[in-house]
Design brief:
Bound molecules: D-serine
Distance between the termini: 23 Å
Strand content: 5-15%
Oligomer: single chain
Radius of gyration: 22 Å
Structural class: alpha/beta
CATH class of the largest domain: Alpha Beta
Strand order of the largest sheet: 4-10-9-8-7-5-6
Shape: globular
Number of helices: 16
Number of strands: 15
Number of domains: 2
CATH architecture of the largest domain: 3-Layer(aba) Sandwich
Helix content: 40-55%
CATH topology of the largest domain: Aspartate Aminotransferase, domain 2
Length: 423
Amino acid sequence: MKKAKKQKHKMHLEALKKADKLLYSLILREKERQMQGIELIPSENLVSEAVLEALATVPTNKYSEGYPGRRYYGGNEIIDKIELLAIKRLKKLFKAEHANVQPLSGSPANMAAFFALMKPGDKFMALRLDMGGHLTHGHKVNFSGVLFKAVHYAVDPKTEMLDYDAIEKLAKKEKPAVLLSGYTAYPRAIDFRRFKEIADSIGAYSMADIAHIAGLCCAGVHENPAPYFDVVTTTTHKTLRGPRGAAIMCKAELANAVDKAVFPFLQGGPHENVIAAKAVAFKEAMQPSFKRYAKQVVKNAKALAEELAALGNRIVSAGTDNHLLLVDVTSKGITGLEAEKALEKAGIYCNKNTIPYDKRSPWDPSGIRLGTPAATTRGMKEGEMQLLAYLINRVLEKPHSTATIKSVKQQVQELCKEFIFYA
Ligand code: DSN
């Protein structure tokens, strides 16, 4: 296999090493775990040294409740410039009319978006959690299912893909205030234009949660709903490859409602060091190298899915169009939990996941979810994905064999040595 160029990003921890040896050693161990294993959890990625540096800077010291030019504290002249820069870059990146970069994470971003568009008790429509939706898309244990009335659509039982005609029929019957698209474990392209048409036909707000695919959307690898949807929420740390956090984009006429829902309704002081790091990541995502990265993420996911299928694994929906795939591991006679644990021992990280119409429980479902954003950031390509598929398959076939796990772990570590990202 052709060796890829090594990429090395540094972590600057000299003061921490002196001040707190225990914490320093734990952080170092976590870095080693990340470098000596393969991260295939599709919602994770590896940020650049520039993003790491921005995170560890003095805006963390500042209170800045409010928005640029309208703060409840003095001393925000420079902070305003940082936040305005992040907003400007995010709007440009996604061709959005308005952006709020303060949401601390994906769940509060969705909560703020819902409260900008609905009152408690109002109805919205989204995909079921066990078919790829998210907890905040109306699950009964989550605020979204407790405070609002959620109606769920499903994927087609045969194709395991969205059935837009069925969604339209349900939307016309239920007349939700918000039609939500965008998912957390759906491996196929989303027809956002069709969702917008359906929402318009019933006078509903169109909302997309593009947390997983944001990096693909802004790079033009996936349809970007931000220019024409009413509201789009995203996290910043998945395919977008920024710091942990989130953002909301919306039409200009909803700007006030969205901003008010983030602050003062939901959040207090924004984390301005994280907003600075978001601004760095947005700039990185504008570069031609990021477009190449996003294309490679998808090529890698396809290569991984195809090779796993060739080795006899059932891939949900028979493939992938984005950065993730779902493997029905019951096709190998094991469960999702067993697969996750065995792969973890071999240094391959993924998460157990339900598959559509799963007969098993979410705690030990039938599938695993694999994704390529982090491995692609390390520089891996289709050849490495084929090798990974072979290694994953070996573990899935003998999840209880110590010898197999040991041998796979050795091969994983050999591979990782060629793709060190953090020095
Ligand atoms: N936890 C994220 C994921 O793994 O998809 C969603 O919130």
